[in-house]
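Why does residue order matter? Because the sequence determines the fold. Keep that principle in mind as you read this record.
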Amino acid sequence: MPCKTHLVSIGALITSLMVGSAHAVLVTQWNFDDDTFNDQIGTLDGTVEGTVTIVAAGTNQFGVDMGKAMLGGAIPDVDFVNMGDLNTLGVTGSFSFTAWLKLDPLPTNNAISAEWWDSRSTLPGDGNYGGFLGTVRRGDDLGNGGKPYVNMRDIAINGDKLLKPEQRIDDGEWHFISVVHDSTLQKSKVYLDGVYHVRSDLYESGPRNLSQTGPSGEGGKDLRLGDGFGAVGGMIDDVRIYDHALSVTIDGSNMLTAGELYDIWTEGAVIQQPGDANNDGMVNLSDLQILGDNWQSTTATWAEADFTGDGTVNLADLQILGDNWGFGPGPDVSFDEALAGVVIPEPAGLVLLAVAAPYLLYRRRIQS
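Structure:
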């Protein structure tokens, strides 16, 4: 798989938003790499109910080997892993949850919303509960099928608070999902594959709890992981709980660019700097020369200056390099001066400056 890149278009307005003031501590993690359902941080070791297995996970969207993963149970309310009472963690305010999910394409006759997380408390039959429920919407819901749902409630509040990313994940690939709740702001946010999916304050605002014991003697229910999730080929990996809202920085397109949550999402990945063909941490004359040497190639790789991933080296790649010129320690010459010294090999035999003229004109206009 190609490594993740972050491309910034000319003139893009980047807006950074920092959330989460306290350092988040990892209190629970299940990654299944030791072929068990044991908590790698704390004491919430899982107990299998019915049939649930551990399988090879393959690689994620960054090409990182995921090791082992949990293949969810096939029958709802029968096959799942009981992870214990989350109330024992003592996380009563802000919290963050992260996990990787993978499932097969859902057929349009699929009528079951597969659960990947259920930490709801057991309450009377009025439908009210505390904690939250994570599902993937059933396939026969044509408008929402294959999209992850997070239903969150506080016992004192009547009504679901739904966080729903507008993106299907039933494609046989790994997807990173996270729920970040800030108790000070009374705001809950969901991120999918590094993108903050905006919902109205009606859905995001209000007090929430990771898990909650019910009133009038109604006890809290142990966390169920992967309840019936295997019926749709559902796999779960690297499940984590933090005791604070993870810090985030997002850009103008709501994509994570930095912060604690970004670091967890990209853990183990090689994040390539746009324009840095030789991956030396700088965008300079060396990268520009590589681009010139491979100009108009139709079988190029990143190392040959194809920064868009389309196999070709053209003005789009030159634009990316120009926009990121000087990244790192930086060159000693300006981008315009560097262009004047790079010659495209035969048969073109042109100075790269000549073919770059339209881009340079636009660049100068937006800089003036």
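The chain has two domains: 26-265, 285-367.
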